[in-house]
Amino acid sequence: MAANQGQTALEEKIERRAPSLPITSAEKANMIIHYYRGEMGRMTSWRDRIDRTTNWAITVVAALLSVSLSTPTAHHSVVLFAMLLVSLLLLIEARRYRFFDVYRARVRKLERHYFAQALFPQADLKPDWAEAIAKSLRTPCFLISYRDALFRRIRRNYSWMYLILLLAWGLKISTPKLLPDETEAELVFSWREAVHNAALGPLPGWSVLVVVAAFYGFIFYASLHQASDDGELAHGEVHV
Fold first, then answer.
1. Are 57 and 161 in contact (CB under 8 A)?
2. Which sequence ranges are marked TM in the entry (predicted)?
């Protein structure tokens, strides 16, 4: 009876044993290849999510601009609403970009230190290059702050969308024929008229202009913000 219990305990211990680590060079190479394919899959998946958010933002801009500029009955707040929706998509994309950056960094470390070295060895290879990947696997953490991710996405894509929306909004409030109370005038001829046309419900036009100016001041600052020369920016021009 005791022998059977001991044999059962031994079998359970064997079943719970962790998989053996690769020992030979062939096993290690096979492991790295499969790991690289897995990280490439995750990186590609998050890259697809980023592109999808950008496509949604472009669709929002195109759709709401066609609604706002195609008929004078559409209020200029439609363009402001488009700015709000694009900003929401930008916040989502910045979060997704932080995840993408983690997997991209792992893939690039493998490519730079392992595959490139296998194709053309160089003497300046760091012997501890895999330590950063192992540390990231044990304790995953973001490599870029939310602020930097936000600024990077504004600089790469969203600054142009915001510029188009600003031009469309300026055209909307400065062209009487595009406003609900259509007149014979082609353009406004005074600053007071433009401020009056920018009114939004109970909000006077000057307050709307101040909010829009402050928001675009932030967009302009983010567009000109210089990223630090770390990460992939320090290893080449091809980066996302």
1. yes
2. 53-71, 77-94, 160-179, 199-221
The Cα–Cα gap between 24 and 55 comes to 47
Bridge-partner residues for 203, per DSSP? 200
pLDDT in tens, 71-106: 777 888 899 999 999 999 999 999 999 999 999 999
Q: What is the number of other CB atoms lying within 10 angstroms of the CB of residue 164?
A: 17
pLDDT in tens, 126-155: 778 889 899 999 999 999 999 999 999 999
What is the SS3 assignment for 203?
Answer: strand
Cα–Cα distance measured from residue 94 to residue 81, given in angstroms and rounded to the nearest whole number: 20
Structural tokens at position 82: 């488009």
Taking phi over 0 as left and psi of -120 to 50 as alpha, with beta for the rest, 104 belongs to: alpha
CB 101 within 8 A of CB 142: yes
Which region holds residue 19: left if phi is over 0, alpha if psi is between -120 and 50, else beta? beta
- Give the whole-angstrom CA distance, residue 105 versus residue 235: 12
Structural contact between residues 162 and 216, judged by C-beta atoms closer than 8 angstroms: yes
Residues 204, 195: Cα–Cα separation, whole Å: 8
